Write the structure tokens for this entry.
Amino acid sequence: MTFKELIKSNIPRSILIIALYILYAIAGALGEYLFKNSLNNILKGNLNGYIYWTFIQAGMEI
């Protein structure tokens, strides 16, 4: 079975799997970006900013 036949066998499920994979990749990149912001805040001594970005990142990971 080729990849094209596999996609055609169940189109809605294939679209769902591809969309979830793209969403997973975006969420991973966004998590790294938010970690960078929280790390920058803690290095500046801004504890409130660090806690804010940490909660945003934790909420996204859930």
